[in-house]
Amino acid sequence: MFEGDEMHFVASVVTGAARLSRTLPDGRLQMLGLLLPSDFIGRPGRDKVAYDVEAIQDVTLCCFRRKPFEQMVETTPHIGQRLLAMSLDELDVAREWMMLLGRKTAREKITCLLALIGQRIATLHLQPVTDGLSFEMPISREAMGEYLGLTIETVSRQMTALRKDGIIEVKGSRSITIPDLADLMAETGDDTDGGMLI
Amino acid sequence: MFEGDEMHFVASVVTGAARLSRTLPDGRLQMLGLLLPSDFIGRPGRDKVAYDVEAIQDVTLCCFRRKPFEQMVETTPHIGQRLLAMSLDELDVAREWMMLLGRKTAREKITCLLALIGQRIATLHLQPVTDGLSFEMPISREAMGEYLGLTIETVSRQMTALRKDGIIEVKGSRSITIPDLADLMAETGDDTDGGMLI
DNA sequence: CGGCAGTTTGACCAACATCAAGTTGGGTGG
DNA sequence: CCACCCAACTTGATGTTGGTCAAACTGCCG
């Protein structure tokens, strides 16, 4: 679906993954969010799509016609509360990303993304998040750039630099190992200790 | 309030203005949002402040203890629906800003901000948004930079460039006139026509 | 063995940041 | 009333980062 399209339904992602993005008239593209199982597309009270939505894997959706769904939200408080909690979480993610896009260097952006994806994949597979963490990057260099506000060349160069610095190990172009998680986190620009004082 | 503080209440802004921001350990700061009258601070179901919140003018808040408020949200569906609509709007704003931070040039960032502030001030004063629009910048060059992910010097240089190009007229450092709104919009990088095809 | 998409690398360049002076204008104290 | 002070802003010189353009390289598939 593309920005401005009429949207006659809302939906919940059941399987697969999709992404939200927006494109400027001259073609510059920024990815705005990732839709994973349980995430919600569309919103009560708005009939146009606000951003481009594209599947990045085969996706199964659970769709509801918009009007009946809006009624259901009004009559079933619990649904509204759930939607509120989800949209507040998305807001946190979006703001975290604003910090990254506005102020972080290319190297910090890349390490943030690697840490994020590594942790999420490990958690998904019920693996501990420790040194030696190993995973497949689910997205291309191009998609990394679109996510981070960088060009593909800069992404590639930073990956090479991180490899040469021993922060990551790379096999092929997608297989990543993180020998020392603390080393990676130290490059993200964030608090390493979760923000605790002393 | 600062990131990580315990928050025993939620609040609605009645008068004045505040801003949301986050700071990296080394001091880099990114503004994440603006709180104006009717905006909401805090959230049901979360007891820590997620971002720094600072008043930028004298502010009056309407505060509610968090626990009773959470109960009220559960028992009064209409409140939850209103909060949902507000947080979805904030999400749109945040994502619009991600596009700006990730992909726009300094000149585009500045013109976007000027257009945004000009239009909001005009609307607030019930003035038509037309050529010759004139207003006072409510924020300093530094704050503009924090909002746009730029340094103060770059902000200043771009303002000078826009003045020399006749896109804006400047009196003192805060008073702005926009002789031709279309000229300004043409510099934002966005669709000038609101995205309509033909 | 091509052909091709995805990736890497190199050379060069533009945009923005950084560092360092100025400049302006409003407020204060002599 | 004037001199000076200070914060906010502007301007200049220079440095870095990341973008751009172009050319290889890789691995996979037909």
How many strands appear in the DSSP assignment of chain A? 9
Mean pLDDT of chain A: 91
Our estimate of the beta-strand percent of chain A is 15-25%
Largest sheet of chain A: 3 strands, antiparallel
Order of helices and strands of chain A: EEEEEEHHHEHHEEH
What is the structural class of chain A? alpha+beta
Question: Which chains have the largest interface?
Answer: A-B, 46 and 46 residues
Question: What portion of residues of chain A is helical?
Answer: 40-55%
Q: In terms of per-residue confidence, which ranges of chain A show pLDDT below 50 for 5 or more consecutive residues?
A: none
Shape type of chain A:
globular
**Rg on CA atoms of chain A, Å:** 19 Å
Give the number of helices of chain A: 6
Strand order of the largest sheet of chain A: 4-1-6
Indicate the multimeric state.
homodimer
